[in-house]
TrEMBL record, chain A:
It is a peripheral membrane protein. Gene3D superfamilies: P-loop containing nucleotide triphosphate hydrolases (3.40.50.300). Residues 5-243 form the ABC transporter domain. Keywords: ATP-binding, Cell membrane, Membrane, Nucleotide-binding, Translocase, Transport. Coiled coil: none annotated. This is Cobalt transporter ATP-binding subunit.
Automatic annotation (TrEMBL), chain B:
It is found in: Cell membrane. It comes from Loigolactobacillus bifermentans DSM 20003. Keywords: Cell membrane, Membrane, Transmembrane, Transmembrane helix, Transport. It is a multi-pass membrane protein. Forms a stable energy-coupling factor (ECF) transporter complex composed of 2 membrane-embedded substrate-binding proteins (S component), 2 ATP-binding proteins (A component) and 2 transmembrane proteins (T component). PANTHER family: PROTEIN ABCI12, CHLOROPLASTIC (PTHR33514). Pfam families: CbiQ (PF02361). The keyword Cell membrane applies. One of its GO terms (cellular component) is plasma membrane. The chain crosses the membrane at residues 28-44, 75-97, 109-131, 151-170, 249-265. Belongs to the energy-coupling factor EcfT family. This is Energy-coupling factor transporter transmembrane protein EcfT.
Length: 282, 266
């Protein structure tokens, strides 16, 4: 598969924090159509990376770092072209809701791009249908739940028809139900429409759904690999300030009571399979 | 939320009446016009005419009359104060009572009555506007009414965007205020008791977090808007458009007839 995003040697300093750079020589690529999770503890530079990809932050000029999105190098001239290819969903559902009602919010991005009104109406309705929010079209944001607001934010992105969707901790302020709803919607977009998904997250179970994981630590890429490879580190993830998935925690707990558990990473289903096969042997 | 329910002014009651369906631009301009023509009336016949007209409009909106009366309530002391001043200090006509500079005369009573009517009619009409027009439509109306001022480099689109974002965040900020108040109460802040200076001091732990949060919100919102391709008002299309229909022309015609009658009754 072709690389849709290539990041080479990206560094970033926040002006207030001279001594510690937020990103240091970050290199990674994202393939078209894949789901990439970027994980890391608080302050590891995840959100800085997300904002850099969309051109919302300009990388340090002296470091010659480069970001390429769909063949375009990110510069002042291409930034709006690149933004049209990327849809971002941010963390706080309330603070990114621009429109006075659901439809208005979904239409906001289309208005910005000068899409003619009849086409806009069609695209807004199709996008709302996609996230199952059609019946809420004329609701105000104050009357929606957090999960519903994030689905509206996704609808706003679907309507713009981007190639890439970046979730910048979009599920962190939601309850478990809202989180599941949002992730199901994104999975559908990833699988049916082959949208590239970059999810920046704390939630290890969300990261477990990705095709590939990039671990950021203090602004540097520490590890890259499939969820199975990353989660097999077990204890080392905890040292990096990260959590481990439920199945791994169960393994640790079993190990403590003396059970002989396999070393390699298992999903929850894999764990259940292993449990019942090992039990039936006894 | 409780606070919001008490506030009638600026509230919208969803409905589907003739008045609800009118174009908001027309409604806004006609409401201002109505306040203007009220001052044409200066005899009981013309006040009766305006009263009947207002009641007709209120009935057409099919909004409970109670909402209008509650709209008058917060202003009742101001109205009574003005009316009483009017009654006690106007001389002329038959004199009923006097004590020092204070008099109660025929003209005073009549003028007091007129002033009272004027206040009530203005409040009824403006309440009718806000009760039957969603805030969003009002901001659209303001935008399109301001459009001619673009010639004078007035940033009309930006003003409209600010109004619509402000309106959209009113309930969100109300919720947040309530939350901060409760959080501060839980930590021992006592709102609304003690002397005036104590009361003012108690407001600080509410105001500062509210301001700081608003700054953060503004930053988040600006980032989200930029990520969605917002580059300013130029070259944008509009999702919502206002359409002027026959019924709007009818409403204007009704006001023209009323104006004609008022001039004839003078």
């Amino acid at each position: 598969m072709a690389n849709i995003i290539e990041v080479t040697d990206l560094s970033y300093h926040y002006p207030q924090m001279e001594q510690r750079p937020a990103l240091q020589h970050v290199n990674f690529t994202v393939q078209a159509g894949e789901w990439l999770a970027i994980i890391g503890h608080n302050g590891s530079g995840k959100s800085t990376l997300a904002k850099s990809l969309d051109g919302l932050l300009t990388p340090d000029p002296q470091n010659k770092g480069e970001i390429k999105v769909a063949g375009l190098t990110l510069t002042d001239e291409t930034v709006w072209q690149i933004r049209a290819k990327i849809g971002m969903v941010f963390q706080n559902p309330d603070n990114q809701f621009v429109g006075a009602t659901v439809e208005d919010d979904v239409a906001f991005g289309l208005e910005n791009r000068g899409v003619p009104r009849p086409e806009m109406q069609e695209r807004v309705h199709a996008a709302l249908k996609r996230v199952r929010m059609t019946e809420f079209a004329d609701r105000e944001p104050a009357r929606l739940s957090g999960g519903q607001k994030q689905r509206v934010a996704i609808a706003g992105i679907i309507a713009q028809r981007p190639d890439i969707i970046i979730l910048d901790e979009s599920t962190s302020m939601l309850d478990p139900k809202g989180r599941a709803e949002v992730l199901a919607t994104v999975r559908q977009l990833n699988q049916e429409d082959h949208l590239t998904v970059i999810s920046i997250t704390h939630d290890i179970d969300e990261a477990a759904q990705a095709n590939r994981i990039v671990v950021l630590d203090d602004g540097q890429v520490k590890e890259t690999g499939t969820p199975a490879e990353i989660f097999a580190y077990g204890e080392r993830l905890i040292e990096m300030g990260l959590d481990v998935p439920y199945a791994e925690r169960l393994k640790t707990a079993l190990r403590q009571v003396g059970a002989d558990v396999p070393k390699q990473y298992l999903t929850e289903e894999g764990m259940a399979d292993w449990l019942w096969t090992s039990h039936s042997k006894m | 939320m409780q606070r919001m329910n008490k506030l009638i002014f600026g509230r919208y009651i969803p409905g589907d009446s003739f008045i609800h369906r009118l174009d908001p631009r027309g409604k806004l301009l006609l409401s201002f016009y109505f306040i203007g023509i009220i001052f044409l009336a200066h005899n009981w016949q013309s006040y009766l005419l305006l009263f009947l007209f207002t009641m007709f409009a209120v009935l057409m909106s099919r909004v409970n009359l109670g909402f209008f009366i509650r709209g008058v309530r917060p202003l009742i002391w101001l109205i009574l104060f003005t009316v009483i001043l009017q009654i006690f200090f106007t001389r002329g006509g038959h004199l009923y009572w006097h004590w020092g500079p204070l008099v109660v005369s025929q003209y005073g009573l009549v003028n007091g009555g007129y002033i009272f009517m004027r206040f009530v009619l203005i409040i009824f009409m403006s309440t009718l506007l806000t009760l039957t027009t969603p805030p969003l439509q009002l901001s659209d109306a303001i935008e399109s009414i301001l459009k001619p001022f673009k010639v004078f480099h007035l940033p009309v689109y930006e003003i409209a965007l600010m109004i619509s974002i402000a309106l959209r965040f009113v309930p969100t900020l109300m919720d947040e205020t309530e939350k901060i108040m409760n959080a501060q109460r839980a930590r021992g802040v006592d709102f609304g008791s003690g002397s005036l200076s104590q009361k003012m001091r108690a407001i600080i732990p509410l105001l500062i977090p509210l301001f700081v949060n608003s700054f953060n919100r503004a930053e988040d919102l600006a980032t989200a808007m930029e990520a969605r391709g917002y580059q300013g008002g130029e070259g944008r299309t509009k999702y919502r458009v206002l359409t002027w229909k026959g019924q709007d022309t009818l409403a204007v015609a009704a006001f023209a007839v009323i104006t004609g009658l008022l001039i004839w009754l003078r």
